Amino acid sequence: VLKRDDWLDLARKLDWEFSYVSEDQVYPEVQSGRPSLPHAAWRDWDEPYRTSYGEYVAQQYTKDLSVFAVREAVGKADDLARLPAGWINALKLHSATLPLAEFAAVVGNLRAARFGRDSAWRTMATLGALDELRHTQIPLLLMHELVRRDIQFDWTHKFYHSNNWVAIAARHLTDELLLTSSAIEFAIATNFVFETGFTNLQFIGLSALAHGVGDAMFEKMVGSIQSDEARHSQIGPPVLAVVAKHDRAYAQYLLDKWFWRSWLLFAIVTGFSMDYLTPIEGRSRSFKEFVEEWVIDQYLRTIEDYGLERPWYWDIFLESLDHYHHMVYASAYTYRASVWFDFVLPGPRERAWLQQKYPRSWGAFEPIWDSITERWRETAPGNDFAVHGTAIVTFCDLCQLVLSNGTPQKNSATTLDREGRRYIFCSAPCRWIFEKEPERYANHKDVVKRVLAGEAPANLIALVRRYFGLDYDSWGKDAYRGVYPWLARSKP
Amino acid sequence: VIPLYGFLEGDTVGLLVLASEEDSIEELGRRLSASASVRVRPKRDLVVLHDGRVLPNGWTVRDAGLTALDRIDVVSRAREERSHSS
Prior knowledge:
Strand content of chain A: under 5%
Strand order of the largest sheet of chain B: 2-1-5-3-4
Helix content of chain A: 55-70%
Largest sheet of chain A: 2 strands, antiparallel
Number of strands of chain B: 5
Shape of chain B: globular
Oligomer: heterodimer
Order of helices and strands of chain A: HHHHHHHHHHHHHHHHHHEEHHHH
Largest interface: A-B, 36 and 24 residues
Strand content of chain B: 25-35%
Distance between the termini of chain A: 83 Å
Radius of gyration of chain B: 12 Å
C-alpha cells in the first residue's frame, strides 16, 4: 500500500495529453479564462493544504458537530434576546448579504472544478464548492430559528430574491464575480482578492467582535466558515502566479477591478457592523484598523511577491477608507426604511470614539449627526419618518450603490456620456471599471433609471413597499426608536 | 420634468432633483437643501454650480441649459468665492 503522501500526488495530478481533441476544445477560453496556455504552463500548480476527499469529509464532519453543539447550547431564539440591539442588526446585515452569495460561489467553484487548468486545482475547487454549500446552509439554518422572534431575519433568505437597492447592488457584484466569471477570473477575483483579503475582515474581525459582545453562536459559525475559506482561498495565489507570468497587465487589471468592487461591499457590510452596530464596549479596533491589518498590509505584501503593483487608485482608496462607510451609514440611517435592519444613532461616546479612530475625517460628519440628533430631539419617540429623507437618492451605474463616495465637502460622483446615454459613477475607479468593459455593464439600469423608465415607483413609500419588498414590520427603524439616555427631548 | 443629480455641500449622498424648465435656479438650490435638511441644516446664500460654473439665481432651468441627468452642485457662496480666489 502506498503511503498517504506518495498516493496523494498520484491522485491529485491526473492530467493527460489529449489525442482526439485539442486542449482549447476541452478548456475553451470562455469557461477556463485567459490567457489560454498549454497545460505545461500549469503543471507545477500546487497549494499547501493538499487535502484528500476522505480527509475533507472527516474534518468537515467534526466541524459541523462542533457548530451544532454550540447551537444547542446558545443558538436559540431566546438567546438572541440577551444580545445588544445594535449587534442583532449587524447579524441581519451579515445574514442577508453573505449566505446566498456563498451559494452563488458554489457555481463559481464548480466551474473551476471542471474548467480549471490543472487537476489539483480542480480537486481543490470541488472541495471549495462543498465548502460554499456548507456556508449557505449553516447560516440559513441558524437564522431561520430567529425569524420567529424578529421578522427581519426573514431577509436571510429573501434578500437576493428582492429588488431592494442593496440586493440589486449585491447581485450586480456576485452575478459577475461568482456566477459568470471564468475559472481564471474566479480564482483571482474570488479566491485571491475577495477571500484572501476581504473575507478575513468579516470572518476574523467580526468573529472577534462577536466574542466581545458575548455572541458565542455567531463567533463559532464564522470561525468554522473561516477555516474553510482559509483552505480554498489558496487556489488563488498559484493561479495568479501563472497569469502574472504570462500576461502581467491582465493580472493587474483583475486585481485592481476586484479589489475596488470588493472594497465597496465590505466597507458597508463590515464597516457598518464594526464602527456603528457593535456596542462600544465590544469593539476592539475600528474598521479602518482591521482593514489596515487584514487587507492593506497583507495584500500589498502578497502582490509584490508576484511583481505586481498597488492599484492605480490607491490614494483614492485610502481617502475612501476614512470616509466611505461613514458617508453611506449617515445616508442609510436617514433612509433606514429602505433596508431590512435597524440602525443605531451614534451618541456622544460613540462619536468621541469615532473622532479618536478617524481624526482626519470625522470632523466633517459631526454637523450631520448634530442635525439628525437635533431632529430626534424635536420628534416623539418612534416617529421614524420625522427623522428620515423623502427625496429619491441616486445610485452608481457600476456598483449600483448610493452616490456616497468622496467627502461631505466634495462628492466624487462623475458622469459619462456614451452612445446617447448618460451614466453616473460614485468614483473614478467605478467609472474606470465601466469604461474597460462597457458592453458588460451598459445595459444594466440602476434604481433611478428604473424609476425614470416607469419600472419602479417614484414615490419613496411606494418604492419601499412595492419595489424594495418591505413593509412596516420589516423595514429598518432606529434600533432604540430614538430613545437614548443621552438624548433629552425638547418637547415631552 | 427634468431629473437632475443634485449634490449639496456637506451632505453624504446625491439626491434626485425633479425640475421643470420654468423653475428658477434659486428654487432648485432651495429644493435640494430642503430635501437634505435631515442631515444638513439649511443655509442661506447658496449658489448652484453646473460644469464648474455658477448659475445666476435669477435664471431658469431653461436659461441654464440644464438637461436630463445633468449634475448640479449646491454650495455656500462663501465657499465658492474662496475656491475662486484661490
